[in-house]
Amino acid sequence: MYVCICNQVTDREIHGAARLGVASMDELAETLGVGTCCGQCRDCAKQVLAEAVSCIPVDQTLGRASTHAIIERRDEPVANDQAIVAGALAA
């Protein structure tokens, strides 16, 4: 289900972010943009994130994963990225 309509973020994406180490609303807002527009989704997103984090076993030797993995992945080009298309046409 969609949690954040403004940024088209689903509960599955929030669960995925939690598996990669996102554990706070600030981190969720930074990585997925949840709650950064109208703010109506913040309560629901907070609940979904808490549920997602509680389902993840914490490895006592490694602790929580870094959020850098999510930030780096957001910058990867996607299939319909206009910069890629423009670069391919120029070559």
TrEMBL record:
Q: Which organism is it from?
A: Ralstonia pickettii (Burkholderia pickettii)
Source superkingdom: Bacteria
Protein name (database record): Bacterioferritin-associated ferredoxin
UniProt keyword list: 2Fe-2S, Electron transport, Iron, Iron-sulfur, Metal-binding, Transport
Lineage at the top is: Bacteria, Pseudomonadati, Pseudomonadota, Betaproteobacteria, Burkholderiales
Q: Name one Pfam family in it.
A: Fer2_BFD
Annotated GO molecular function terms are: 2 iron, 2 sulfur cluster binding; metal ion binding
* Boundaries of every BFD-like [2Fe-2S]-binding domain copy: 2-51
Q: Which family does it belong to?
A: Belongs to the Bfd family.
The record's Gene3D superfamilies line, in alphabetical order, gives:
BFD-like [2Fe-2S]-binding domain (1.10.10.1100)
